[in-house]
Amino acid sequence: MKKMEEKILAEATILPGGVLKVGSFLNQQVDTVFMKEIGEEIADLFGDDEISKILTIESSGIPIAISAGFAMGVPVVYAKKNKSSNISGDCYTTPVKSFTHGDTNNVVVTKEYISPDDRILIVDDFLAHGSALNGLINIVGQAGATVVGCVAAIEKGFQMGGDSLRAKGYRVESLAIVDEMTDSEITFRRD
Amino acid sequence: MKKMEEKILAEATILPGGVLKVGSFLNQQVDTVFMKEIGEEIADLFGDDEISKILTIESSGIPIAISAGFAMGVPVVYAKKNKSSNISGDCYTTPVKSFTHGDTNNVVVTKEYISPDDRILIVDDFLAHGSALNGLINIVGQAGATVVGCVAAIEKGFQMGGDSLRAKGYRVESLAIVDEMTDSEITFRRD
């Protein structure tokens, strides 16, 4: 069984409305010892792919992206959900719908942080409908850079975002894929 | 000269309105090789203080808090700026004014992630007026836990938030203190 699957079974809880709560180790609270192992797992998956940069989206994607960035020795860029006064210059922007929060945000990356020769690994905590990953892929496309692949800590397989990206030819590696979730039981996808 | 001071002189730019832009290494884009060194510097500063947990605030505090958490082997908890549907249960909350964004957010930490026996190191990217650090200190107080100290990557010494906290008896370690900033020159505080 994969590390992330074991951790989910040990620590995650299921909230009403199909929310998988992983606040004790992945967001809200980050288990840095575990995340170091997860970063190394991501580095093993993409170690031969000449990744030049990791791209994620604030906030909950940042811990796992930083963990991967530490293990791979490459910079991490995170898209911001609203343009703030400390973002200057030209930006790439795209709308991203949040199913957790029920709203749509324009996410923003300053142009100078992605260049056409970048080979980008996109990393996020959850992959459900795929809105965030599709938004980040869109931004990499605007920059003329290459999407080498995508990593999600946890994919909700029943919400199809991951399989839809795979059908388009993207390499999507999820550290755990939940294919079914009842109030009391989690079923992971098997190869 | 300290590592953070060197990095600021090499890469930061000054934007109109007194904004120190460090997007190339500290926020927006995170230089993970540099941040690993910074995490180790924080671990050296507080290595003898039996820190049990690091507390920060989303989003730009997360990379430096994770870096310190990796070096110290302790969990990182980050306060969220709005209660979302994946935060369940009782929360500690306090208002924090953002001078960058010009608004006030209620920041939230789920109660289960801080307990009275926790010895907390508070970490953030910037310390200016001290609103974020004071909010996080307030949350630690609500939990009945101990604030061992505070770390800011960059303190704007001329905005007094850091010195005000020191005057109250808190240990505040900033990795660089900018005491003066013109359109073209940065002056760091010397001991």
How do the strands and helices of this protein lay out in sequence?
Two copies of one chain form a homodimer.
Chain A: H1 3-11, E1 13-15, E2 19-21, E3 29-30, H2 32-46, E4 53-57, H3 62-72, E5 76-79, E6 91-98, E7 103-110, E8 119-127, H4 131-143, E9 146-156, H5 161-167, E10 172-174, E11 177-181, E12 186-188
Parallel strand pairs in A: 4-5, 4-8, 8-9, 9-10, 9-11
Antiparallel strand pairs in A: 1-2, 6-7, 11-12
Helix pairs in contact in A: 2-3
Question: Largest sheet of chain A at a glance?
Answer: 7 strands, mixed
Q: What's the shape of chain A?
A: globular
Number of domains of chain A: 1
Taking Cα atoms only, what radius of gyration of chain A do you get, to the nearest Å?
16 Å
Biggest interface, CB < 8 A? A-B, 42 and 43 residues
Helix content of chain A: 25-40%
Would you give the CATH topology of chain A? Rossmann fold
Mean pLDDT of chain A: 94
Strand content of chain A: 25-35%
What would you call the quaternary organization?
A: homodimer
In terms of structural class, how would the helical and strand content of chain A be classed? alpha/beta
User: What is the strand tally of chain A?
Assistant: 12
What order do the helices and strands of chain A follow? HEEEHEHEEEEHEHEEE
Tally the helices of chain A. Answer: 5
State the CATH architecture of chain A: 3-Layer(aba) Sandwich
Distance between the termini of chain A: 12 Å
CATH hierarchy, class of chain A: Alpha Beta
